[in-house]
Amino acid sequence: MKPGKETLERLLALPDEEAARIVREMDGDAARRLMFDWPAWVRIGQEPPSGDDWRIWTMLGGRGFGKTRAGAEWVSALARENPGAEIALVAANVDEARRVMVEHKRSGLIAVARPGTEADGLVWQPSLRRLRFASGAVAFLYSGAHPDSLRGPEHHFAWCDELAKWRHPQAAWDNLMMGLRQGTNPRALVTTTPRPIAALKAIIGGDGAVRSGGPTWANPHLAQASVADMRRRYGGTRLGRQELEGELIEDLEEPLWRRAMIEETRVGTGTGTCPLRRVVVGVDPPASAEGTCGIIVCGQGEDELGYVLADLSVAGLAPEGWARKVAAAAQAWGAQRVVAEANNGGRMVESVLRGADVDLPVKLVHAAEGKVARAAPVATLFESGRAKFAGRFPALEDELAGLTWFGDYRGPGRSPDRADAMVWAMTELMLGPRRGTPRIIQL
Fold it and tell me: Phi/psi class of residue 129: alpha, beta or left (left: φ > 0; alpha: ψ in -120 to 50)?
């Protein structure tokens, strides 16, 4: 065992007060050497994979497991060993990348820089979103909410933090990987508390992927009373298994849409399953300029079943922009009606459709009930076999799987915009009064 690790383990075996006294009495240089001796602190699940036959390292851990420290130490080591390397730091947003990955007082890249030349040589330029290491390597900050910012830049390495809560995980990851092509062995590390989103599952199951991690209580440096309280409150629950034990749970407790049910109700796309009688476009307008506008196309077949036909949701557009996308979706699918939530600017849809000379009724609805109360009857349609998914819609399916009977939302993003739009469309199509003359449209 290495001297530093032996010293640390002896200290951890002592009562807290005695261990603190010994550290205070240690020579300053010895204390600093111990603090920055990462091999002494690293635990199982935090060590990089051995060998050269891996490309993606995913660390799934409970809160407080030590994912950030491990990520920062990995990046710091790469910067030392690869002068001039360009490294991507991607978080849910740029502010989190700055606060957690770079500036965290105990675990960020600045904090883990070794005293002396390495720490003195760091140049942090927040306005440029850039951290320059003493070796000449440079790290750039990016946001998982803005995938296009990763379109174009090339990197040698990448560290992705809390990918499971990125607003656009698949698009951001795809753009990052297309640019991860510098050097002879480009690699990426994903540190995240797991959520059952399609993007994360695809990463874990991909070629050249390795996985590590551990539970919250594997970190002996956390306050043990707090850990014991969390285990008492959440141990064995779905929330505890995900947030504390770092497990990737496929289904939430009591989800409205079980993953298995989604697969069971899926039919092929464009296979001529059934001609359609009616088509409705459901719209859930975004609450902010950066939000997602849910645009879901649903149809009812001659077999009296409801079908989810398309997810045309868009993000980052002004009201006129996303409203025109709604108009285009309605025209492309030959919809007989648009159903839009009026709470967040749904009237814009009606005015833009009118301005675009689209002869199409728009029904404005108000979210007077909670999400579960609105979604539960629609979930029952799928459970009873009266509704199907005509294709694969990963982003929509992740949101549906995040709606629970408890009344809360635990899926990706802040709000289930796509799921809400689908619920509006299916409610109008299958549960509301029928209007207009049916038209036959081939699926």
Answer: left
CA 40, 46, 48, 53 torsion: positive or negative?
positive
Identity (one letter) of the amino acid at 319? P
Angstrom CA distances, 282 to 33, 338, 365, 431, stand at: 60, 6, 10, 14
* Cβ neighbours for 161, distance < 8 A, ≥ 6 positions apart: 67, 68, 71, 89, 90, 91, 92, 96, 97, 100, 101, 191, 192
Among candidate residues 429, 440, 176, 165, the one with its CA nearest the CA of residue 307: 429
What's the angle, vertex CA 71, arms to CA 70 and CA 72, rounded to 5? 95
H-type helices in 146-290, by residue range?
Answer: 169-179, 198-204, 224-234, 238-243, 259-264
Q: Which helix (H) or strand (E) holds 123?
A: strand 123-125
pLDDT in tens, 94-153: 999 999 999 999 899 999 998 877 888 999 999 999 999 999 999 999 999 999 999 999
Which residue bears the tokens 């290495």? 2
Tokens 């070796």 label which residue?
Answer: 135
pLDDT in tens, 174-186: 999 999 999 999 9
CA 228 remoteness from chain centre: 28
Whether residue 166 contacts residue 96, with contact meaning beta carbons closer than 8 Å, is answered with no
Query: Token pair for residue 128?
Result: 């440029």
pLDDT score of 48:
93
Burial of 63 (0-12, 13-18, 19+ CB in 10 A): middle
DSSP string, 26-42: S-HHHHHHHHT-HHHH-
Chunked mean pLDDT (size 10), the chain, 443 residues:
58 67 66 69 88 93 92 96 97 96 94 84 95 97 96 97 94 96 96 89 90 89 83 72 80 78 80 78 86 94 94 90 90 92 70 65 80 85 92 90 80 88 95 52 44
Least Cα distance to 246 among 422, 87, 103, 63 occurs for: 63
**3-class secondary-structure state, position 56:** strand
Asked if residues 296 and 313 have their Cβ atoms less than 8 Å apart, the reply is yes
Domains of the chain and CATH, by start: 42-243 (3.40.50.300), 259-431 (3.30.420.240)
